[in-house]
Amino acid sequence: ETVALDVIKDVGIGGEYLSCEHTLRHFKEELSFSDLAWRNRRETLKQFDNFSIRDRAAKLADEMIGKEKTCISDKQRKELDLIERLWLKKNGY
């Protein structure tokens, strides 16, 4: 329902979607907010160590790296390691 091919066809190249009824009904479902932006008052930010956006980005990156998830099984990892070793040996590495 949210991908309105008929609306896309009607609007065409160079058109705008903001005035379409479909956009009005669905735009809030598609909004996303960055964890980096500070949406409170500046005085409140000072209570939280006054981090710059760069500091918040670095902290968020560290947290994401720390939450690394394994997406393959141990068996799959061993198979990939074997494939890599064979390829390296075959190509003289």
Would you write up a description of this structure?
The chain is mainly alpha-helical. The protein is flat. The model has no long low-confidence stretch (mean pLDDT about 85). It has helices at about 5-10, 20-30, 40-45, 55-65, 75-90. The protein has 2 domains: about 1-30, no CATH class; about 35-93, no CATH class.
Question: Could you give the topology of this structure?
Answer:
Blueprint lengths: L4 H7 L9 H10 L11 H6 L5 H14 L7 H17 L3
How would you briefly describe this protein structure?
The protein is 58% helix and 0% strand. It has 93 residues and is mainly alpha-helical.
Shape: flat
Largest sheet: none
Gap from first CA to last CA: 53 Å
Structural class: mainly alpha
> Mean pLDDT across all residues, rounded?
83
Number of DSSP helices?
Answer: 5
Low-confidence stretches: none
- Computed Rg: 24 Å
Number of strands: 0
Give the quaternary arrangement of the chains: single chain
- Secondary-structure element sequence? HHHHH
Helix content: 55-70%
Approximately how much beta-strand content do the residues carry?
Answer: under 5%
What is the count of distinct domains?
A: 2
Keywords: Methyltransferase, Transferase
Pfam families: MTTB (PF06253)
GO molecular function: methyltransferase activity
Family: Belongs to the trimethylamine methyltransferase family.
